[in-house]
Design brief:
The chain has 204 residues and is α/β, with parallel strands linked by helices. Helix content is 34%, strand content 25%. The strands form three sheets. It has a five-stranded parallel sheet with strand order 2-7-1-8-10, sandwiched between helices. It is globular, with a radius of gyration of 16 Å.
């Protein structure tokens, strides 16, 4: 495949959806596409996705219409096979992914590049509480489930701290994606990550 796949992941509360929305608005006209996420949940709440019923999702899964799919918190998530067509046309494609599914994504796309969005523990807790989707006990349990993950040495991983102003983290992501889009895959390893991960972070 001639294109570049950038897999953006991070813990709940890290502000990943807001960060991707910022990048989308500031990358108009660039050869960068943001893959659609199909989720068995109504759209809204600041999250860009295509809502499917459980039955619709299952039918598309059986037909092989998802390049990537996973389940989390009783919901099903999918990335459509249009992803492969976009990569074949030489585009840089950004996926809003799950840390739990990362190893499956690497197996299918071994040249994947990872962006890990994170925030300070107290920021994560405050943001999760502000959502009012879960009780304080559920939020604490979610934060306690965070465990280390590892990446193969061949995988380029950049960590972006989104603890502060969205614009600061957003500019870092925009700069990273512009560099990825305008660098050939063969030369990718010559570009250092703006904030290199130590290949040990946290999983969802």
């Amino acid at each position: 495949m001639a294109g570049r796949l950038v897999y953006v992941m991070g813990p709940s509360g890290a502000g990943k959806d807001s960060l991707l929305g910022f990048a989308r608005r500031h990358l108009m006209g660039e050869p960068i596409l943001f893959a659609h996420r199909y989720i068995t949940r109504p759209s809204g709440n600041g999250e860009e996705h295509v809502a499917l019923s459980v039955e619709e999702f299952a039918e598309r899964s059986v037909l092989g219409l998802f390049a990537l799919e996973w389940s989390s918190h009783s919901l099903r998530y999918g990335i459509g096979i249009e992803l492969d067509a976009w990569l074949a046309r030489g585009c840089t494609v950004v996926v809003n992914g799950s840390r739990q599914h990362l190893q499956h994504a690497i197996a299918r796309y071994p040249h994947i590049e990872v962006v890990h969005v994170d925030a300070a523990p107290e920021i994560l807790e405050a943001r999760l509480g502000a959502r009012a989707r879960e009780s304080a006990e559920q939020v604490a349990a979610r934060l306690a489930r965070r465990a280390p993950f590892s990446l193969p040495d061949s995988i380029r991983c950049t960590t972006i701290d989104n603890s502060g102003a969205l614009e600061d983290a957003g500019r870092a992501l925009v700069a990273f994606l512009k560099a990825a889009a305008h660098t050939s895959p063969e030369r990718a390893t010559q570009f250092p990550a703006s904030s290199p991960a130590s290949h040990s972070a946290n999983t969802r």
